[in-house]
Design brief:
Blueprint lengths: L1 H22 L5 H26 L8 H24 L6 H11 L3 H13 L4 H25 L4 H9 L2 H12 L8 H11 L2 H16 L6 H25 L4 H11 L6 H9 L3 H26 L3
Length: 305
Amino acid sequence: MLAALLTVLPVFGLIALGYGARWTRILRESTGEGLSDFVFVLAVPCLLFKTLATAAIPAAQPWGYWISYFTGLAVVWLIAQLVASRVFGRKGPELVVSGFAAAQSNTVFVGIPMILKAYGEAGAVPLGLLLVIHLPVTMTVATVLAEGRAASFGLMLRRLFMHPLILGILLGAAVRPVVAHVPAPLWTIIDLIAATAVPCALISLGIALHRYGLASGIGLPVVLSGLKLVVHPLIVLILATKVFAMPPVWAGVAVLFAACPCGVNAYLFAERYRQGMADASSAIALSTALSLFTTIFWLSWLGAT
């Protein structure tokens, strides 16, 4: 219990810092908007660039591992959008935000420390494989869905390839063959900017929580949190242990990765499109709070405590 609490405490701490700074008027509302723009346009693209350019990707891909995780992701994304549309009347980019929030995991602050504490070095390789493609896949899908609804195919492609996150992904992949020749000063700049992505995003989220609170109501955030913390890891558990053959550690890593709370990138995506910010911020805060209890359950079920 204490270990799980210490794992999620930094997340709450940074969100609370942003909330408190806005509540005491140390920071202005426009600061949060500017901070989220910085994270979306510079910090996260640098993080994606660095991750894809330097990651060790094995030649033989573990397809059962991929299928187990991303099938669960696709199912909860689809359910979230159906519920958000038909029950809560969401549409357009805010509908995409609901699916994104239910599917994308908070890996940096919750996933990495939780999984490495549970499995140690044995979990490092399967964890790294998911980290490499998790955010690029979810961001690309979300961008295609959001841009594709209001644009022609040609315009959608143009917007997609000018999108800051997609540019970070494409440039990172392009640099892989010559990564050893990238000048050290350039890597220093990239490292410094990338290191700001998560803390700045969480502080920006705290400012947004002060602005929106539970303005979207409790209903949709509860649904999104339930899909993220219970349904997603349950689907992955069934596929990874009953359908595909893989080492128990790999199955456990996939389940714990899926069991992470809603990722802050859902809020950054919503802020970028100026739609669904209240839904995303509420779902992130609620799922992070509930993850303290659901994480303990999944760790115990997997025998990883």
